[in-house]
Write a structure and sequence with these properties.
Helix content: 40-55%
Largest sheet: 9 strands, antiparallel
Low-confidence stretches: 1-26
CATH topology of the largest domain: Beta-lactamase
Mean pLDDT: 90
Strand order of the largest sheet: 1-3-2-15-14-13-12-11-10
Number of helices: 20
Structural class: alpha+beta
Shape: globular
CATH architecture of the largest domain: 3-Layer(aba) Sandwich
Strand content: 5-15%
CATH class of the largest domain: Alpha Beta
Number of domains: 2
């Protein structure tokens, strides 16, 4: 999504503490075209990762038909192990481009027609509007123009149904979903589109989605450290993800993955394997001797089809699992991947035959903006241009400022108790009339009530998503909002009780 992507010479063996970045995993082609540029990119990336307190990252850069640069930064694990070219990372929504590629393979095999209705492949599919159910097409799913909503798909990221038919169960539950717009009317990014595409792949190919991806993409591209299962990836040394709490990384090794959203954002790949994937996209569907898609098929994947204006920014276009835009007369095809504990950014510069992938083992919903501009900076450096100004580095400090809320609440409690003591000891200090009801009761009630209202979203249908992707915001809101609700009434009662007793004790 565009808001996530707005605005993206390390010292070998050096470790900077705390949150230092131990630089490892250096592999650079001996005939790389511009080693100075690669060193500048490393230096820029290391500075930004250190500034953002990222625990670890892996970088791959390709040019033409080869990987020209692989480098690991920091820690893949809490005990200090560094990423290697083969360390698997969750890649989030980069998965959508794999799903789109699989669909195009089946189109070329004559098993899927892009403008066919979804119901040709999933006869049971329906939403609340019968007409929309019959009109929605495969192409609309690929281009995110089906009318399926964003927020419903976010809710599913907290649905950890691990049964094999989890995706179909979630898709069948759409039968009561009312669309806000008709299919084909406008762009709206939604994982639901790609959940359905995963089911269409299964129906058209006769293979489970994980098996299809392994057999038709991972294997021919020699992606030997890429997985559709976290359990399998963990056996191969998968990096430990981190959730950012108030801007600081906290290991989250046991977070489950929502199986139902597999085709929308749950693949796991290493940096080296992502290099193979970039090569096939830059070279008209060919990797070595393997031709996994025709040149026309790759061009169709990257053809801009609709303005990507989910967040009110229509500068970008969306294709099939990719955003396409012009940056300073340079065509950039890119996407980011968001998980609660991982972030990935991938970009192609087709005219220059260059590609880049950055895999990070930490994330936060608000982190999309700061990591997105880091990705933009990486693309600019790769294109030989200066990186844009960084604006979102303030986000970690904004998150840390959340800690002021409980601090202010504690100070408020202490002040109230001190004031009540003063009123009991000195009758002349007791407020009355407008001063009592305005300053000491009404205004604090308004403040505490407003704080308590922040509980509304975290107690609603988005609570699971917020708990995963914004844990610091979720728990601060839950604790402080709940306290404000209770304290607002308790404080008012204490004030009225003290004043009432004081008046009764007066002669």
């Amino acid at each position: 999504m565009s808001i996530y992507r707005s605005l993206l010479q390390a010292v070998i063996g050096c470790t900077i503490q705390p949150f230092g970045l131990a630089v490892q995993m250096v592999q650079t082609s001996s005939d790389a075209p511009d080693t100075t540029l690669l060193a500048e990119i490393d230096r820029y990336l290391q500075q930004q990762l250190n500034r953002l307190k990222v625990p670890g990252a892996a970088l791959v850069i390709v040019e033409g038909e080869r990987i020209v640069h692989l480098r690991g930064f920091g820690r893949a694990f809490p005990d200090g192990g560094a990423p290697t070219p083969q360390t698997p990372f969750s890649i989030g929504s980069i998965t959508k481009s794999f799903t789109a590629l699989a669909v195009m393979q089946l189109v070329e095999a004559g098993k899927i027609v892009l403008d066919d209705p979804v119901r040709r492949y999933l006869p049971w599919f329906q939403v609340a509007d019968p007409g929309a159910s019959t009109r929605m097409t495969v192409r609309q799913l690929l281009n995110q123009t089906s009318g399926l909503p964003l927020f419903r798909s976010w809710q599913l990221l907290a649905d950890f149904d691990d049964r094999p038919d989890a995706a179909e169960r979630q898709a069948r539950a759409l039968a009561t979903l009312a669309l806000k717009r008709a299919p084909g009317e406008a762009f709206e990014y939604s994982n639901l589109n790609y959940i359905l595409l995963g089911l269409i792949i299964e129906a058209a190919s006769g293979e489970p989605y994980p098996d299809y991806i392994q057999r038709h993409i991972f294997t021919p591209l020699e992606m030997r450290h890429s997985y559709t299962s976290k359990a399998a990836a963990s056996l191969d040394g998968m990096a430990v993800g981190h959730q950012l709490w108030f801007g600081f990384p906290v290991p989250a090794p046991d977070l489950p993955m929502p199986r139902g959203s597999m085709a929308a954002g749950m693949l796991i790949c290493s940096a080296e394997d992502m290099g193979h994937y970039l090569i096939v996209l830059l070279n008209e569907g060919r990797y070595g001797e393997a031709q996994i898609l025709s040149p026309e098929g790759v061009a169709e994947l990257h053809r801009p089809m609709v303005e990507a204006s989910t967040w009110g920014d229509s500068a970008e276009q969306y294709g099939m699992g990719w955003y396409i835009e012009e940056q300073d007369q340079t065509r950039v095809i890119s996407h980011s991947g968001m998980m609660p504990d991982f972030y990935t950014f991938v970009a192609l510069l087709p005219e220059q035959k260059k590609g880049i992938a950055l895999l990070i083992n930490a994330n936060h919903f608000m982190g999309q903006m700061m990591f997105g501009e880091l990705g933009a900076g990486m693309v600019a450096r790769l294109a030989g241009k200066p990186p844009p100004a960084l604006w979102f580095g303030v986000i970690p400090w904004l998150l840390r400022s959340l800690l002021l809320i409980p601090a202010l609440q504690i100070a408020g409690v202490a002040t109230t108790l001190w004031r009540l003591r003063q009123w009991r000891q000195s009758p002349v200090r007791r407020p009355n009339g407008r001063q009592l009801w305005g300053r000491h009761i009404l205004l604090p009630l308004i403040f505490n009530g407003a704080t308590a209202l922040t509980l509304t979203p975290i107690l609603g249908r988005m609570r699971g998503f917020l708990m995963l992707f914004m844990p610091d915001v979720f728990w601060t809101t839950l604790i402080c909002g709940g306290f404000a609700l209770l304290w607002g009434f308790l404080r008012t009662g204490l004030i009225l009780r003290v004043l009432h007793r004081s008046q009764e004790s007066e002669p």
